[in-house]
Amino acid sequence: MWYKLTKEEVLKELRVDPEKGLAEQEVEERRKKYGENKIPEKKSKSFINIFFSQFKEFLTIVLIIATLISFLLGEIKDAVAILIIVIINAILGSVQEYKAEKTLESLKSYVSPKANVLRDGKIIKVDIEELVPGDIVLIEEGEKMPADLRLIETNNLQVDESILIGESVPVRKDADFVAQEDITLGDQINMAFKGTTVVSGRGKGVVVGTGLNTALGDIAKMLSEMEEEPTPLQKELEKLGKQLTYVILSLVALLLFIGIIQEREFFDMFLTAVSLAVAAIPEGLPTVITILLAIGVQEMAKRKAIVRKLSAVEALGATSVICTDKTGTLTENKMDLVKIVLPNGEMVEKKDYKKQKEKIRDILETALLASSVRVTSDGSYIGDALDVAIYKNFEETYGNKPENLTKVDELPFDSSRKRVSILYKVLSEDKYLLCVKGAGEEILQRSNTYQEENVIKPMSVEDRKRFMEIQDLLSKDGLRVLAVAKREFDEIDERDEWEKDLIFLGFIAFMDPLREGVKEAIEKCKEAGIRPIIVTGDYLLTAKKIAEDLGIDVDSGSTYTGLDLQRQDLDSLDWDSVVLFSRVLPEQKMNIVKELKERGEIVAMTGDGVNDAPALKMADIGVGMGLRGTDVAREASDLVLLDDSFATIVRAVEEGRRIFDNIRKVTYYLLTCNFSEILVVSLSVFLGYPLPLTPIELLWINLVTDGFPALALGVEPPEKDIMSRKPRKLNEGIINKSMWKNIIIDGILIGIAAFVLFVIGSKENINTGRTMAFTGIVFSQIFQALRLSLRKRKSLFRERFSNKYLTLAVLFSLFLQVLVVFTPIGIRFFNLERLSVREFLLTLVLALFPIYLLTGEKIYEKIFKRNINL
Ligand code: ADP
Ligand code: MG
């Protein structure tokens, strides 16, 4: 019962010095004893499991039973052949599914949160799994509690414990509290629990429980893991798959029925019907989508975009608006303090700081005191980029830090306050000093005097206007501007009374260079019909200049401020032309997303703060930041940028489009192939011919031509117009109307070609007919894959091998088929007839149909200078 012990007792019990932390060696020993600080997740499916689940399909079971029967009936060779093909099919399917599982699993470990911990007297960052009981942990706003802690220091620390106690009002923590009796979790205000989030303030605590041995662990033990929702595309395909299943099953039943009326051999007919159903029902489609999405996730990870939800991959491909913040995403967030402006308008450039040392001492020192920067053991600075810049410039100018002050309390920064205040006690005198920095409007509103050459003067309305003009002037150059102020008092009053009657000291201006590649990315967006909208907490003029520098046409677009959003009816804004929102509160971000979504846009929104979480959740694609930003924001997002850059979002969009195109291609391909198979069998049955394809052949087609080329189509490189066409409408399904039409036409052409081959060959004998139909349909399907791959390339000839997997798959499938048709083993195994050269050439000529179509399409494009849509 840690909450009943005093801090000292807890530290003693856990044998740790709160100033030094544990020694590494001690950490090792404790880790052996207590294990890793993680809550085990659901076990993933094993390969064997996945393999056997391949046989759960009802039709596959029917097929296997039928095969066993034919085995008993003495058709040993055929039965063995069918079983072998079914098993190879299942193995291939399992390998793919297993790989997809593994990829998705590895996702989870990409963005593993870290904690600041004190060890061997130094503050270091470690993965939270590595924490052990006794570790001294520092926590701050936006972080997730890494373990159960007994707090030993609290600084306005407020924690959201809703995941544990269901109460969403933040709990104010107090390290000095000691309970006298047993109390519930919610009342243990000297404790902090794993998984809860810091809403504001900071604190320090000693780890008392890790992994399953935490309050969260107790719950996790009770709850079963939540399954991931299928993505919209997966759902759509599942539905499509079901519908196709019904259609195909009815058709197959009809064929069987007609076959019986025609007095065909029942068992042959039955086996063929089942094989046809197994081959033609695209039961593998949803899995294919999962695999392609998983591959996409992997590709995006290589490009520094970590997908946290599979559905984000699909939505990315349809993104029409990207709402992006400015600092750190469009700019580097590597600030330098380049100008200081005093209330009298005197401007001091960076190169003159040393020369003007005395003049700027008060403002720079106050700014420093209003910052929080920690220097790590290796000499790097941890803290807000602005604060670090102030710190560095102060050090360069004066060398040492001001002394004779101790920090008492602080009102921390948050994006709605737009300011920071830190309260100090002046040691030599009996008084307090409040140091404030923040957005100009906020500070000037709360100041009633200003300091000029050590004289404090009252601030008139004109003065205030004059100061605002200074801010505008600086902002117009794209500088980020902060106002600095202070206040001295003898007695401290209530916290919310602190920030008033301030003495304004002047402005400090920061330069934040544009990120490399962002300008090009914005350009790309424009071409691709995607609208970038800057949504920033910064000042309008600063943001405007940055936008202009990036090539966004601010003058013909509209811009709004947070105040506009507050005052105006959201409907009255010009949403079609808006390019910039400035001085926006995090809460307003959500309204912006909502409004855009209602207008039919697919919205990506970036965010880094705790209060950005609702907007991130509301967006179609919430984009979190890997470098800066809080755990809370990352957790609420669907996509995390490892490098925080806007350009990465655009690359992810491009990848999303590519994946969608490929899903389309694979679906289109499989449907044309399956349709042609059904057609050739149905035609023969209806017209009273013998069966054109044997069960083994049907299953083989399903394996060889539906399998390898289809997979290879899934990894096609981007099409030529990938970033120059408009975003896809999200409600436009995988297969649209015109695609259905084309699928049917293609299927008919391939199917009829095979049927014609069958009829011609049958004149010689039935086996020759089957061999020709079989070879013809396999070849034309392979060529169809080639056609789908090539028809959206810029240059057919130069890019003919640009998908090397497809080239390999095509060659491999052709090779296998040639092996089957031309080797004695193949001929025996499949019951084929050796084809003469003339017959083979005829087969080839008819099977090349897709290539003729491709040529036609290309010629059409050349003549009419128009792209053919798939
Ligand atoms: P953004 O990241 O979009 O620029 P923020 O919400 O981070 O927006 O910042 C909004 C405003 O708050 C800034 O323009 C600045 O005036 C003020 N501000 C930002 N960071 C600090 C800080 N560390 N200390 C004081 N004020 C700050
Ligand atoms: Mg910011």
UniProtKB/TrEMBL annotation:
GO molecular function: ATP binding; ATP hydrolysis activity; metal ion binding; P-type calcium transporter activity
Membrane topology of the entry: Multi-pass membrane protein
Enzyme class: translocase
Chief localisation class: membrane
Keyword tags: ATP-binding, Calcium, Calcium transport, Cell membrane, Ion transport, Membrane, Metal-binding, Nucleotide-binding, Translocase, Transmembrane, Transmembrane helix, Transport
Domain (Cation-transporting P-type ATPase N-terminal) ranges: 1-75
InterPro entries: ATPase_P-typ_cation-transptr_C, ATPase_P-typ_cation-transptr_N, ATPase_P-typ_cyto_dom_N, ATPase_P-typ_P_site, ATPase_P-typ_TM_dom_sf, ATPase_P-typ_transduc_dom_A_sf, ATPase_P-type_domA, HAD-like_sf
Gene3D superfamilies with a match to the protein in the record: Calcium-transporting ATPase, cytoplasmic domain N, Calcium-transporting ATPase, cytoplasmic transduction domain A, Calcium-transporting ATPase, transmembrane domain, HAD superfamily/HAD-like
Pfam family, one: Cation_ATPase_N
Segments crossing the lipid bilayer: 47-73, 79-98, 244-261, 273-295, 666-687, 739-760, 805-827, 839-856
GO-annotated cellular components: plasma membrane
EC number: 7.2.2.10
Location of the protein in the cell: Cell membrane
Keyword Amino-acid biosynthesis belongs to the record: no
Name by which UniProt lists this protein: P-type Ca(2+) transporter
Species the sequence originates in: Dictyoglomus thermophilum (strain ATCC 35947 / DSM 3960 / H-6-12)
Phylogenetic classification of the source organism: Bacteria, Pseudomonadati, Dictyoglomota, Dictyoglomia, Dictyoglomales
